[in-house]
Amino acid sequence: MEIRILRYFVETAREGNITRAAQRLHVTQPTMSRQLKELEDELGQKLFIRSNYSMRLTEAGMLLRKRAEDILDMVDKTESEFKMLDDTAGGEIFIGCPESDSLRFLAKALKRVQEDHPNIRCNITSGNSADITERLDKGLLDFAMVMEYVNQLKYNFLQIPAVDIWGVFMRKDAPLARKKKLRLADLYDLPLICSRQNIEQNFSQWFGDKENRLNIVATYNLFYNAAILVREGLGYAISYDKLGNTGPDSDMTFIPLSDVPVSDMKIIWKKNQVFTPAASLLLAALQEEFGEKT
């Protein structure tokens, strides 16, 4: 299985059309068709459902696409790292983070690095903790921001000096909007909008045997989309504070949950990580900002 063929496969999957994919990669369409057929023969699986005007992935094709994109990301990152080994004036840094106001602390360290090395570029990948640590483990990220627990056998970490407060975003004309604080029991039977990670990691601990009283009408991955659902009156979104606009010009407000612990944020990286010069500069800035590694 050649890297070049995986690029052909991924581009065809993205375009849904082999002619357009071939044009983008500057390859002839017959060449790409032949090599994709050889890839199917090599794997012993049909990867595409072909029609006159489009190509759709089979289940095997969807699995290969996920694996191939990870492989190509790793190849591209590795090539970039070797090009940057002797370049301390520039380079790229790869960071994964959830949606959190705590990112501003990392941004301050990045700004200090870029003031001295303006050719360094930072690449941010947003996602939940599971997605981010998976990419970190695969070597696709240099650093990750995660909430709360850290496996200290696998990762070094720095503690960010801030916490995120759990609460509920709702319309300002909602019945609960006049409250100063909420308790979890206030949420029973309300139409709730929740992140999938929050449901999987917290709800059994938060609600116990009352979890079946929750009325979850929507789930989300990025809060921006959840905020739109809130503003349109679909329900109440459980999230961290400061992620949505609750100012005078907004029709949304945030009420904290008084019986849920706050969450702290950490910057982590793999044990025995070999950094590029650019990533090493950021690590030094982070350690100076937040203290020595733990």
Distance between the termini: 41 Å
Strand residue content: 15-25%
Spatial ordering of strands, largest sheet:
4-3-5-12-6
Q: Over the alpha carbons, how many angstroms does the gyration radius reach?
A: 23 Å
Structural class: alpha/beta
Number of E-state strands: 12
CATH superfamily of the largest domain: Periplasmic binding protein-like II
Q: Any descriptors?
A:
alpha/beta; Arc Repressor Mutant, subunit A; D-Maltodextrin-Binding Protein, domain 2; 3 domains; five-stranded mixed beta sheet; 9 helices; 12 strands; 41% helix; 24% strand
Would you mind describing this structure in some detail?
It is a single chain. The protein is α/β, with parallel strands linked by helices and 294 residues long. It has 3 domains: 66 residues, Orthogonal Bundle (Arc Repressor Mutant, subunit A), CATH 1.10.10; 106 residues, D-Maltodextrin-Binding Protein, domain 2 (3-Layer(aba) Sandwich), CATH 3.40.190; 96 residues, D-Maltodextrin-Binding Protein, domain 2. The chain is 41% helix and 24% strand. The chain contains 9 helices and 12 strands. A 5-stranded mixed sheet has the order 4-3-5-12-6, with helices on both faces. It has a 5-stranded mixed sheet with strand order 9-8-10-7-11. α5 packs across α9. The longest helix has 26 residues. The radius of gyration is 23 Å and the shape is globular. The protein starts with a helix and ends with a helix.
